[in-house]
Amino acid sequence: MSNPIITFVGAGNMAASLIGGLRAQGVEASAIRASEPGTEQRERLQQAHGIATFGNNAEAIAGADLIVLAVKPQVMKAVCLDLAPHLAPNQVIISIAAGISCASLEGWLGERPLVRCMPNTPALLRQGVSGLFANPRVSSAQKAQAEQVLSAVGLALWLDEESQLDAVTAVSGSGPAYFFLLIEAMTAAGEQLGLPRETAAQLSIQTALGAARMASESDVDAAELRRRVTSPNGTTEAAIKTFQAGGFEALVQQALNAAANRSAELAEQLGQ
Ligand SMILES: NC(=O)C1=CN([C@@H]2O[C@H](COP(=O)(O)OP(=O)(O)OC[C@H]3O[C@@H](n4cnc5c(N)ncnc54)[C@H](OP(=O)(O)O)[C@@H]3O)[C@@H](O)[C@H]2O)C=CC1
Ligand SMILES: O=C(O)[C@@H]1CCC=N1
């Protein structure tokens, strides 16, 4: 398959992670463009990745095979209405915005090949994971191109139902922030227990990395790996009992419900 030309419309945090991951994977700078109002951000991207950047969205998408809409949900409607007259029929739109539905995007852009995707920022290190949903206008070759881009920066999983994207957003789109929060909290707790802050941070981060790699590479599930750390009547059991007494699992469920509900709410508020 030939390498598609990809234009990012909006090149903030998430697009910069995807661009960094694609470049690290060996995608040529000439195959990537970014359109972004911020002059400083444009210069940063040019310097870091050697890609062409534009201050004008219509110019940036001319001749692109894939157009990744990476603006905030709040500006998506205005961006789409501006882009619509400049789109060629065979260009595939990939929206990474939380909440914004295919129906809304089709309302603004016209009926066309659309992929909704929920990536996450570890894409920068090619350790991302994305949920993808394609509308029926996306051909199998176009689907393969979209998958080629997202699988270059991590795991790409196709979804059967568009509605599942709210759950993907709650689990993995927002998910890196939950793990960062746990690292922050463990670092603070380690410091409270008498460790230098830097040591507490190193212990917390390396433990997260090691645990994630074990969960990913082991042939047993996370529950069994946890049991293997938890000696009867030992230190881990004391900590886990404390988490459970504080309602840890219920709190995680509530937090993910809040994220998924917010995704549905954004669709409702901004989708018209
Ligand atoms: N951050 C994350 O972890 C993830 C984010 N997403 C989704 O990605 C999208 C972007 O989020 P994120 O990267 O965090 O947000 P950012 O605000 O970091 O990036 C959005 C960028 O779009 C630019 N922009 C604003 N208006 C326009 C316009 N009219 N044309 C072109 N570019 C414009 C902004 O410039 P300026 O700042 O100058 O306004 C900004 O640089 C959102 O829809 C979000 O739901 C999805 C998965 C994970
Ligand atoms: O917080 C947000 O709304 C975006 C979507 C997923 C991660 N960041």
From TrEMBL:
Source organism of the structure: Ectopseudomonas khazarica
E.C. number: 1.5.1.2
Main function: Catalyzes the reduction of 1-pyrroline-5-carboxylate (PCA) to L-proline.
Catalytic activity, as annotated: L-proline + NADP(+) = (S)-1-pyrroline-5-carboxylate + NADPH + 2 H(+); L-proline + NAD(+) = (S)-1-pyrroline-5-carboxylate + NADH + 2 H(+)
One Pfam family matching this protein: P5CR_dimer
NCBIfam families, alphabetized: proC
Keyword Signal on entry: no
GO MF assignments: pyrroline-5-carboxylate reductase activity
Gene3D superfamilies linked to this entry: NAD(P)-binding Rossmann-like Domain, ProC C-terminal domain-like
Gene designation per UniProt: proC
Keyword Ion transport applies: no
Broadest EC class assigned to this enzyme: oxidoreductase
Record's keyword terms, sorted: Amino-acid biosynthesis, Cytoplasm, NADP, Oxidoreductase, Proline biosynthesis
Subcellular location: Cytoplasm
Family per record: Belongs to the pyrroline-5-carboxylate reductase family.
The protein's annotated pathway: Amino-acid biosynthesis; L-proline biosynthesis; L-proline from L-glutamate 5-semialdehyde: step 1/1
Domain Pyrroline-5-carboxylate reductase catalytic N-terminal: 6-99
Name of the protein this chain belongs to: Pyrroline-5-carboxylate reductase
Domain Pyrroline-5-carboxylate reductase dimerisation stretches: 162-266
